[in-house]
Amino acid sequence: MRLERRQIRELIHQSPETVVEIVMELSKQVDVLSKRVEELEKQMGMNSKNSHKPPTSDGMRKTKSQRQKGGKRGRPIGHRGETRMQSEIPDEVKEYKPEFCPHCAHELHSVEQIKVDKRQVIDIVFRQEITEHRRITGICPHCGDRVRGSFPQDVVAPVQYGDGIASLAVYLNAYQHLPIERTAELLGVLLGGNGPSIGTVAHMVNRAGEKAIPQLHIIRERILEADVIHVDETSLSAEGRRWLHVVDSKDYTYYGVHEKRGYDAIHDIGLLERYHGIMVHDFWSSYFKDQLPGTHAMCNAHLLRELEAIIDSKKGQAWAAKMQQFLRESWKEVKVARETSSGGLSDDRKSALTQEYGAILKSAEAELEKLKPPPSKRRRNAAKTDAENLWCRFVDYAEAILRFIHDPRVPFDNNSAERSLRMMKLKMKISGTFRSDKGAHVFAALRSFMSSAKKQGFDVCLAIRLLLSGQFAF
User: Fold this and answer.
1) Distant-in-sequence, close-in-space partners of 192: CB < 8 Å, separation ≥ 6
2) Are residues 397 and 313 in the same domain?
3) Whole-number Å distance between alpha carbons of 109 and 102
4) Do 331 and 233 belong together in one domain?
5) Rounded-to-integer distance, Cα 248 and Cα 15, Å
6) Does any domain span residue 221?
7) Residue 415 CB neighbour total at 10 angstroms
8) In this predicted structure, which of 231-235, 340-344, 461-465 has the lowest mean pLDDT?
9) Residue 113 — left, alpha, or beta (φ > 0 → left; ψ -120 to 50 → alpha)?
């Protein structure tokens, strides 16, 4: 209800208490709306540089890059270039002799050869190779019984596709993320219109996934032997909302699909409860359960983004910029020390950086105290601000945050696990959701196998072919 000036004057004269109640109610509404506006402005200001949002959510707007200016460009100093050498045994040779002398026009059919210049063109020719298997039946000369030979164990149909085509289909679908339909279409083009059907390609992918399952036990055991692992999780769609969990080491990668994101999934997957090394992760609470014996190391890239959000809020949080600069400069110093010395920083330097970290947090505490409202306006159970929550995290998890300074094995961030999960997001962006839980589990098994095979130095397509033929071994 809107009051006119005349009505307000009458209320003041007739019932001052009513005016007081109206003003107090309006004051409450202003507080609620102010907080709502502040929350909306905060959401509008979120992007991939100051939050966990992916870069694709930034749209066309420009965001402030966290990369430092003046970085290296082009070929690194000392990098050895690679040039493909000519083959000693080309598949085809074409010779180009001079036909006429350009000076006297004399024919040169039988000219003496004094020099040969060679240039090679590398190309690929697509053709299918058909192998016919014949089972011979004959008569035993001794007993007169009819006897026949045996087909190879993997030759089971009058016409079928070999492991070469199957491995290419799996490679295109599970590694290069082509949908089943486009994979079948491409194989049809390569085979001159004689390609496998969509159902056949799906069967090839499922068969490879089943073959990969026995390899997962080896991958899991090798991951448990690693000094440092990276863990993370992301959502996916397969008969409803599911979660893809990744446990990633320098040499192996394991993916697990589960209905839940938290500790129940970690328990059912059964890796982290057996791991005693260093786990690099973000601040997801499930990784801090007492049942997990690993040592914690925090992803500082997440902290840099959250500090950027505090800086963007423009609320006088000078400590956030100081902490952001400290983390970046410390990592630069640690990288240089690791390149020059296997032990990293000296003990004195580690101690100095730890003290500097504590001094920044001390100054931050004073800043946060000044920004608190006076006691008369402060609510007893008021929620902490984002800056206060972040400061508490820096205080409570200081040892895990600074582990990259003290242990030369520990990286600065959790990019290894995030890169591994990025492939899942790419798969979903191209192909959409999984039609079944089985499809999600098959994909996770194949990605575990292919990622681990690549880290071990295998050609991925060749590794899939060896897997299908039962000849692969880590």
Assistant:
1) 126, 127, 128
2) yes
3) 14
4) no
5) 71
6) no
7) 15
8) 340-344
9) beta
Please report, for residues 270, 299, 300, 402, 410, the alpha-carbon distance to residue 229 in angstroms, rounded to integers and kept in the order given. Answer: 15, 12, 15, 17, 9
- Containing 302, the helix (H) or strand (E) segment is helix 300-312
- Looking at the DSSP bridge assignments, the partners of residue 228 are 278
Looking at the structure of the chain, the number of domains it has is 2
Residue 261 shares a structural domain with residue 326: no
Cα distances (angstroms) measured from residue 120 to each of 81, 90, 381: 20, 8, 77
* CB-based contact 242:424 (threshold 8 Å): no
Question: pTM for the whole thing?
Answer: 0.79
Give, for 445, the enclosing helix (H) or strand (E).
Answer: helix 437-455
Residue numbers of the domain that contains 245: 226-295+416-455
Each residue's pLDDT tens digit, 272-285: 999 999 999 999 99
CA distance 144 to 412: 78
Which residue do the tokens 């100081």 mark?
Answer: 322
Q: What is the DSSP letter of 107?
A: B
pLDDT recorded at residue 74: 67
Do 133 and 139 meet the contact criterion of CB atoms below 8 Å apart?
no
